[in-house]
Structures are given as C-alpha cells and as structure tokens.
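User: Study the shape:
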Amino acid sequence: INAEYGNLIVDGISEANPNDIAYVYSGYAPLSVRLIQKSLSNEMDSLLKPLGIPVSQVSQSLPPGAKSMNSVNLVFYVGGMTFTEISALRWLNSQFLAQGKKPILMATTKMINGDTFLKDTVLHNVPLPFGQDSFTS
C-alpha cells in the first residue's frame, strides 16, 4: 500500500526543515492528506484507476456577468479529522501558496483525538475486538 498510495512512509524526514507531509508523524504521511495532495496535483488517476474507481473532474464556470472571486481548494472531512491531519494540510497549504497555487481551506464535522475516539466508541456501543466486554477488561 505504501508504493500504491504515494510513499506513506518516508525515510530521512527532517522535522526541523520538512520537505514532505510525512514530517507530522516523524516519517509517516497520513493517507487522507496524501490522497488530497495527489488530487490537488492532478495525480488521482494513477492512484484510483488500478482499483477500478472511476475518476472525473468537474469545473464550474461563472454565469455571464458574474464577478470572479478568489477560488480555494475546499477539503471537508466528514466524521472528523485529527490535529495531525490539520498540521499536514497546513504544511501542504504553505507549499501550494509558495508555488502560486490556490489555498486549501479545511473544514470538518468534528475534531478527533485519542480520548474522543475512545469515548465515541464506548458511547455508541461499537463492538470491541477479541471478545472484550469493555476497554477496562
């Protein structure tokens, strides 16, 4: 999966002077952010076509007489995103801006961390692995 999805594990990452989104996890690139990076770099075809997933891009033109506004890349996470994904997207945004590309605007339905993930799992009675009855057993 590492090679298929654009090098999720990157050796030799410098956290002081990062050159890849993998710096956020000391060498591991979050899959969601790597897919966003590939999508915004028009590289999604090479990732999704081997999986049999159709790829299409849609652009919208302005109606006649409409005033042009600055455009952005809107990234919306349904179900939540982690602070690490935000960090990786912020780094990616800085790289895009330095290249004169459109900025990335992030939105999510919820912020996720270890505590919220476990609380939601227990609250919604998600089955636990290995036949456990609770997280404490």
Q: What stands out?
A: Residues 16 and 23 are 9 Å apart (CA to CA). The chain has a mean pLDDT of 82. The radius of gyration is 19 Å. The helical segments are 31-40, 44-48, 83-98, 114-123.
